[in-house]
Amino acid sequence: MNIDKIKKEFPIFDEKIQNNDLVYLDSANSSQKPRVVIDRINEFYTKQFSNVGRSVHYLAVAATNLYENTRVSVQKFINAKDKNEIVFTKGATEALNLVANTLGQNYLQEGDEILITELEHHSNYVPWHFLRKSKNIKINFAEINEDGEITLEEIEKKITTKTKIISITHLSNVTGAILPIKEITELAHSKDIVVVVDGCQGAPHLKLDMQDLDCDFYAISCHKMYGPTGLGVLYGKKKWLEELPPYQGGGGMINEVKKDRISYGDLPNKYEAGTMATAQVIAFDQSIKFLESIGIDNLVKHEAELVEYGQELLQKNNSVKLIGNPKNKGGVLSFTIEGIHPHDVATILDEDGVAIRAGHHCCQILHDKLNIPASSRASVGIYNTKEDLDKLNDAINNCKKVFDLK
Q: Quick check: pTM over 0.85?
């Protein structure tokens, strides 16, 4: 791949940050947007705008067709069986809340147990916590090993006869650990346990195949996939989406409304209440085409090389301690520097034009387990190079000089 050519497709890199060329290492937070996505949003609003599924005039029909074309693109991209297994949401957070809420209504009973892990983002814990309060269910945690991984053996050990749901990340946004979702799903289904996957980090960095993974639900964050903000995707097996109740009520999700009864629309309309993020959905089709033009296998290989290079570089840097050393690792390099708070690290690196994330990354449980209040995190995307990681290392050295560290 010609990364320099790919990088030119992202207008943000024409900008100077603190009089430096931008080194963007915060893609796990949100990826930058290629020009084709930005232009598609502008084109839709200036030439094609209409609400979808509401009117029969030309613009409305055309917008509806474009909207549904994206649904088909997503279906093919993740290899779902049916386009109606693709539900558009306001984000992955809403997708996970949708699953927790509807399973809580129709599937879970008092005393049932949900298994999650110490790696989980708050979006894949807080919705289940709500059910712990309202339905008196129990949440169990699979524990990380010394490399920051969750093993299949640990999952199996934590399953009980009361476990009804396993809700688990595909790729940790802190340690970078890639979890064995296919094997976990096989184990879970052998015990009639539902599997929900937080794919916020998995979808941008891994090749997805729902038929191979066989999970029941998979949540995707589009803004981490070079797509627009305010948009998520929930993949759900058809049998579950048909069985579970709607998540929100309003226009678009109904079939018939009378004073004494309401019937709901067919899939996926049943879960898409109100005015949807039409421009974002239509632009996300360009995000998928962009990824397909690069090739997911090429993207995975490129990012794996970057992570390996970055690990070797930072491991040689005195005072820098990498968080986690999983055998199967995605595009995340989290670290601490002895004697410097992560927020100070991020602030000083920004002066060199190097953008990273600092904080607990919405993973307080994991940081508590590691006995640290926060960490610094560099995360890669398709536009990054080894030179970017060299600049990261140089900026870390500058930071250490400020604090008089060797």
A: yes
